[in-house]
Amino acid sequence: MKYLVLFEQTSTGYSAYVPDLPGCVAAGATVAETSELMRGAISMHLAGMREDGDPIPEPQTIAEYVVAA
Question: Rounded CA gap, 60 and 51, in Å?
Answer without folding.
Answer: 22
